[in-house]
Known about the structure:
It is a single chain. With 1032 residues, the protein is α+β, with helices and mostly antiparallel strands. Helices cover 38% and strands 24% of the residues. Helix 23 runs antiparallel to helix 24 (985-1028). The chain binds adenosine-5'-diphosphate and magnesium ion. Magnesium ion is lined by residues 116-117, 263, 463, 465.
Amino acid sequence: MHSRDCVKVAVRVRPFNKRERDAGSRCIIAMAASSISIQDPRDPQCRRSFCFDYAYWSHSGYVIDDRTGLYLPEEAGGRYADQECVFQDLGEGILENALQGYNSTLLAYGQTGSGKSYSMVGYKPNKGLVPKLCERLFEASKENQDTRQCQGSICTRTVFFSMLEIYNEQVVDLLSRGSRPPGGLRVREEQHRGFYVEGLRTVPCDSAAQIEQLMEQGTRTRTTAATLMNANSSRSHMLIVLQLKQILSKESVTKQSNINLVDLAGSERQRSASSEADRLKEGTAINLSLTTLGNVISALADMAVGRKVVHVPYRDSVLTKLLQSALGGNSRTVMIATLSPADICYEESLSTLRYAERAKHIQNRPVVNESPTERLVKELKAENARLMQRLSRLGQDGRSANDETKEIRQLLTHNELQIRTIHTLWEQHLQEALKDWEQQYANITQERRMMQMHPYILNINEDAQLSGVVKLFIPEGEWDIGINEGTSRSISIKGLGIQQRHAVLKNEQRHVTLTPLKGSKVTINGRVVSQTTELQHLDRVILGSNCTYLYIGFPSERGANDWSRYDYDYFLSELAEAEGIHLGENSTDSCQTDPSLLAVFYDYIRLMPLVAEANQMSQELNKGVEFKLEIKNLVLSDSKGHDLEKEIVCRVTSTHSKQVWVWSKAKFVNRKFLMEEIYQKHLEEMKGQNTEEGLSTAALPREKDPFWDPVEPLLLGTAHLWLQSLAFRIPVDEQLEVLGSEGSEEAILQAKLIPCTPDGLPLGEDEILIEPSELLGRRLDVQLVLEQCFGLHWIRESRDRGIQIGFHLFDSASRVYTAAAWRHVNPMLRHTVHFASLNVSQQLLDYLQTSAVLLELWGLQEGCASLVSPLERARGNTEGIFIIDLNGMADTNVQPADCLEPNSSLSRLQRDLEEQKRVNNTLLKENQRLRTQLNGGDSTRSRSVRPSCDAEFARSLKRFYHSMTSVRAQLQSLQRRRPCESCDLLGLRLFVDEHSGMLKDFSENLEQSVSALKHDVATIVRRKRERLGTWS
Ligand SMILES: Nc1ncnc2c1ncn2[C@@H]1O[C@H](COP(=O)(O)OP(=O)(O)O)[C@@H](O)[C@H]1O
Ligand SMILES: [Mg+2]
């Protein structure tokens, strides 16, 4: 069979998690049958719809069974899609495929925490697709065996299990217990097999329980690998491969199929990787595999709709190599895209849906597989049969052919032997695996026993799937906890910032205490401790930068309390609280909190451990930089002072030079990843050399060092200089507070705005305007003077620094900077800039009345060049006046040409072009505005602008004529109206009554219109006289 088969796509939306509930999130996902729609939280009218093969509503309408802990639909046939329902649709199909001999692949895609692992692996007792599939596989084998045996056919079915992780393009065998090869396992390619992982452990299994056991083992390896490599599981892909071999003796058919089950890395990484510019972006592969998967899917989707695709980049990443057959090849493939329902995840969810949308177009060509081994068995059997036939024929012929018979018999035995070897090999494998499994089982029983005897600490991971996997027991006595391996009185842990001997755990007289050792960091319940502390059941313990454990007390202390409440988020919130950041335990409070604000806080909390780790790495690698998170308030950079969003940045300080950098969040995340890579290499080197020497990592050139960046000027803060009084030509002289991004006072800045003559002489008081609109169409000259800065915090911190003030006004293209002032806490600036609008436009007037100039305080550091405006000279005319409000100039055809110095003609042309573009833009906007005004939309203008007499007169005439239209209509209807021929006296009287009523209305209307006109004319005349000063 060689048919085309589209990738099947399912989407699933999970319940709110605690964080989303606390934030008062709204569900923005809706589903009906197999279609799904998502609402833009900022624009509720905007809904996007998608259609997939399956849509699973697992958001609401469920109950948790008290006894079993299973999530079940509230009522039978309810809309809630539980694990079983998902398995029925997706799992059964995959199983059926595999049994028929097709390869199948199941991929889970979605942002971290959206429910990928829940769907794939599940959380006990809510088993996911993988364990359910395995259970059903062995059940099916058994059923199958029974029926087949009845039919006299023997089916041997073998299942091989392997489990691997791809992290940073390295393959880690999750079932191998030996030491891991540096650089991971190799991915090789063979003509028949395609890509495969060399030396990957594949374990034969004969029960679902055994597979579950192996998965547990794999998860454990994953957890330790994560702490060891300081890796984040959300960045790694987990791949489980089930190899199924079936030998059907009667049909002489052997089928082999692979089931790939893939829990992909969090999709959010891909976006953040591509969103931000960073000097070191080129070299990063935050998740090369995920990015490439996206590219492969795009290429295949394009191909499916008939677009020409030159190249599908399978070979660009490890994951796509291994999944090559699943994507556009020999496999039946299902993707489950998981979504968070919450409004704050809108962007991510939308991007997941788009990704899934593309994936559903991919076409595969699945075929039933026969592997070389199976073919061999088949061929051997065939040969046997042939030989038998010849043998019997020889006997019949009665010819004495002793030699030939002997030879044939030999061949026969040889063949049979080979067949037997193939079968016994499997038996042997199985036996080995069983022995292995028994050992594992013994370990688990042992662990259970220990749990009932001793207190212990339990690992808590950011990934819920990896939490509670590692248990470190604290039997009676005194134990060193730290890296130290091999000593009998120690508990060995690894991770960033963990010392050789980190702390001492003492279990004495049914009390457990923890004593941090010198130089090591220990945090208990959010507080850093340095003294011996007694641990209480369910205390949260953080060792080093980010090794998080929950203390489980003596069995008698435990009670019925479940520890699941203390997840990773709980640890983080507790830490944040210690830093003074409180987040909505109290739901009434948080309901009112702006979700975008909450999102920022959660971001902050999530980044905290990363920053701690970056600091630890910096320290261990002797990088001499410190990282610190800051919440930047964007209100400071808005010229209208609106409270916009907040943003997280990372402040990087060099510990000895005191140089400072500010990194965006995306840049930090990117750099952190690179740091990990370098740190990992460093550790490997250390292991190899076993010296303290390698610590400098001096070999790394600066340009490639993620801890290093060239020094650059730093935006320290801003001050708002409000322009309103300029609209009245009133001067301003103010002491302004320059506020840093966190609201701290960075300096005081003395600034003036002086309305002046074109020669720069200040205007007198008699030039003050009562009505700003009088500025329209006239020339306005202003000097902005920056006198002095006081109390510069930046210079106080370190004397060899400097500052500059930068700003830009209205439509001027370039920023103006003051000269750099170095090493002075209260530097004189005496910087004057003369601005002029040759023809004040409405826009400039509006700007003056509502906006402020943002005066930016820039910090200079040793080794960085000061800031200059590239266009500064171009915009100033010969007297150094900066012409603004080009819109107004365009109106009167005043050319700014005389302002330009004859520079290179090309650059001037470019500038002209830019200018033209901008003028066009402003004109467009102006047109737009005028249009809305014409439609009566803008009432502010009629208030603030005094129209000319002619215009006023025109308008009142227009009003008069308008009212006259209805008067005329009334007159016409009066004229047309006649009494009917046959009407009697009563009828006539009624007619006259009606007529006189209409006549009355008519005359009233006419009267009103005329008097309105009279009134308007009188007002216009009065105003005109008022303006001419002849009214007394
Ligand atoms: N369909 C669901 N029903 C109930 N809980 C869910 C569901 N999907 C996810 N969860 C919960 O959400 C959390 C994150 O899910 P997880 O599968 O670990 O996310 P991911 O693997 O995508 O990072 C887990 O605590 C899990 O129990
Ligand atoms: Mg997961």
